[in-house]
Each structure stands twice: as C-alpha cells, then as structure tokens.
C-alpha cells in the first residue's frame, strides 16, 4: 500500500523552529538566527511572516527597519517591501526580498528554509 501524504511529510521536515510566537509582537520586526541564516519575523494583523534579513538594494539589515502596516522599511536607504510577498513597494530597491513559508505549531513559529541542495541550486 502506498502511503498518501508522504510529500507533505517531506515538506514538513524542512520547517525549522525559529522562535516562540510570543517573541514576535504585533507590528514589530524581530531578527532570529537559525541554521546560519538571519530571518526576520514580522507580525501583521495577527499573522507572522518570515523574510531574509538582507535588503536587495545593498544588503541593508531589513530587520532593523520599521514595520509600517504590512511594509518593512530598510534602515539604510528607505526601500520598502511588502512582508507578505517580498514585493518592492518603494525604491531604491528593484528586486523582491526572499520570503519563507511560516506555520505555527504548539506555539512555535516554524519557517520553511531552503535546504542546502535548493540553496546551492
Ligand atoms: S540597502 Fe536597503 S535601501 Fe539601500
């Protein structure tokens, strides 16, 4: 008998606990290090989003920027990104920032990070 749902089981394996849900206050950005990567977690309207802590304009530390509604503003030159999609909403950045799928399990914020294979292409 073939086991159904094995694909979703594999996908679940890629979700890594990054923080406790209470460590991410509404309307603020927080930076966490996991697996050698810095991940920004933002809570907007009760939902947590994850993105890379690297601005696509010139590598600014996005997680040190302000969260304005659903946009995060880079502290370096003021580019803004939609934390829900990574899309640029204000120049000078031209490219979207990397975002990651998030799920909540038992109060833990789980983020699906690229595996080493995916990261190396
Ligand atoms: S490094 Fe982020 S706006 Fe320039």
Give a brief rundown of this model.
By secondary structure, the protein is mostly beta strands. 10% of the residues lie in helices and 40% in strands. The protein has one domain: Rieske [2Fe-2S] iron-sulphur domain (Rieske Iron-sulfur Protein, 3-layer Sandwich).
What is the strand and helix layout of this fold?
Elements: H1 6-13, E1 15-20, E2 29-34, E3 37-44, E4 47-52, E5 66-68, E6 71-73, E7 80-82, E8 88-90, E9 99-100, E10 102-105, E11 108-112, H2 116-119
Antiparallel strand pairs: 1-11, 2-3, 3-4, 4-9, 5-6, 6-7, 7-8, 10-11
Relative helix content: under 10%
CATH homologous superfamily caption: Rieske [2Fe-2S] iron-sulphur domain
CATH architecture: 3-layer Sandwich
Rg = 15 Å
- Read across the widest sheet, the strand sequence of neighbours is 2-3-4-9
Mean pLDDT: 89
Oligomer: single chain
CATH fold description: Rieske Iron-sulfur Protein
Class inferred from helices and paired strands = mainly beta
What is the number of beta strands? 11
Instruction: Report the CATH C-level class.
Output: Mainly Beta
What is the makeup of the main sheet? 4 strands, antiparallel
In total, how many domains does the architecture comprise?
1
Element order: H for helix, E for strand: HEEEEEEEEEEEH
Hetero groups: FE2/S2 (inorganic) cluster
- The proportion of residues in beta strands is 35-45%
List the uncertain runs.
Answer: 1-6
Number of helices: 2
Alpha-carbon distance between the two ends = 34 Å
């Amino acid at each position: 008998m073939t086991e159904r749902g094995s694909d979703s089981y594999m996908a679940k394996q890629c979700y890594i606990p990054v923080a406790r849900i209470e460590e991410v206050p509404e309307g603020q950005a927080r930076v966490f290090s996991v697996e050698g990567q810095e991940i920004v977690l933002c809570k907007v309207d009760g939902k947590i989003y994850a993105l890379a802590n690297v601005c696509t304009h010139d590598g600014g530390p996005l997680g040190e920027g302000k969260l304005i509604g659903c946009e995060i503003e880079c502290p370096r030159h003021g580019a803004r990104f939609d934390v829900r999609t990574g899309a640029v909403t204000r120049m000078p950045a031209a490219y979207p920032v990397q975002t990651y799928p998030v799920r909540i399990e038992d109060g833990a914020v789980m983020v699906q990070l690229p595996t080493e294979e995916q990261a190396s292409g």
